[in-house]
Amino acid sequence: MLFPVEAILFDIDGTLVDSTAAVTRTWRTWAGAHGFEAEEILRVCHGRRSEDTVADLLPAAQRAAAVTELEQLELSDLGDVVALPATRSLLTGLPTDRWAAVTSGSRRLMLARLAAAGLPAPEVLVSAEDVARGKPDPEGYRLAARALGHDVRDCLVIEDAPAGIRAGRAAGAHVLAVATSHPATQLSEADAVVTDLTSCRVEQTAVGLTVTTLA
Q1: Which of 3, 6, 16, 212 could form an S-S bond across to 208 if both were Cys, CB 3.0 to 4.6 Å?
Q2: CA 17, CA 13: separation in Å to the nearest integer?
Q3: Which among 167, 178, 112 has a CA at the least distance from the CA of 135?
Q4: Mean pLDDT score, 15-24
Q5: In terms of Cα–Cα distance, which of 138, 125, 134, 132 is closest to 16?
Q6: Are 72 and 108 in contact (CB under 8 A)?
Q7: Residues with catalytic function
Q8: Whole-model pTM?
Q9: CA 174 → CA 12, 153, 195, distances in Å?
Q10: Helix (H) or strand (E) holding 175
Q11: C-alpha 200: how far from its chain's center?
Q12: What is the pLDDT of residues 60-95, one digit of tens each?
């Protein structure tokens, strides 16, 4: 499939970096310490802000402390966070004004994970604290496109989780899913699904970028 676009808007966890094991350990540790069933949390937390998952579990007065605790657990667990296939070469080959990242994580944590994975930090990074509503709300992707100076309808969102795919579609962007953290059957709302970014080729054009998915 071919996507002629002006810019690419990437998710980070599960799309650019493999942090699934760290995310799972964090939620298991936190759930165990607070008397929650970890498996139930893990079924719904991927692709969402910690604030939004915690809001389903705790009264308002306890949520900020829980989010801080979760972030500290994640910041202390970077040892096996690595770049996903093809991400380093793809990002370093893109003009800095043609890509951004939109994440459900905090800015501090996402910059730490990108650094741990040896990936460049984007000039435009929309993180959990930059939006009033997290994914699947489209706010983050609309903000990123606007910051780059492009219409979100002319952008390609690349995501690994159903919540992020829904956010990209709600924003009006084209959406490509990578089946790195979820089976392809759960990503069918995207315009196209690939195994990972080794299945993509990005070429610069006179007006933007052309992203081609390879069979």
Answers
A1: 6
A2: 5
A3: 167
A4: 94
A5: 125
A6: no
A7: 11, 13
A8: 0.91
A9: 17, 7, 18
A10: strand 174-178
A11: 17
A12: 999 999 999 999 999 999 999 999 999 999 999 999
Sign of the torsion formed by the C-alpha atoms of 111, 117, 118 and 121 = negative
- Give residue 215's pLDDT band: very low, low, confident or very high (50, 70, 90): low
**pLDDT tens readout for residues 142-153:** 999 999 999 999
Question: pLDDT tens digits for 43-56?
Answer: 889 889 999 999 99
Q: 173, 169, 175, 138: which is closest to 153 by C-alpha?
A: 173
Q: Report the distance separating Cα 7 and Cα 157, nearest Å.
A: 9
Contact assessment for residue 145 and residue 8, using Cβ atoms and an 8 Å cutoff: no
Question: Residue 123: is its pLDDT beyond 90?
Answer: yes
Confirm if 159 and 175 have CB atoms less than 8 A apart. Answer: yes
Q: Single out the residue of 76, 77, 70 nearest to residue 48, CA to CA.
A: 70
For the chain, the domains span 2-18+80-213, 20-75
Q: Read out DSSP for 112-154?
A: HHHHHTT-PPPS-EE-GGG-SS-TTSSHHHHHHHHHHTS-GGG
Taking each helix axis from N to C end, the angle separating 60-75 and 107-116, rounded to the nearest 10 degrees, works out to: 20
Whether the Cβ atoms of residue 197 and residue 206 lie closer than 8 Å to each other: no
* Strand 7-10 to 2-5 pairing: unpaired
Cα–Cα distance measured from residue 158 to residue 192, given in angstroms and rounded to the nearest whole number:
10
Q: Where are the alpha helices (DSSP H) in the chain?
A: 20-34, 38-42, 50-55, 60-75, 87-92, 107-116, 139-148, 162-171
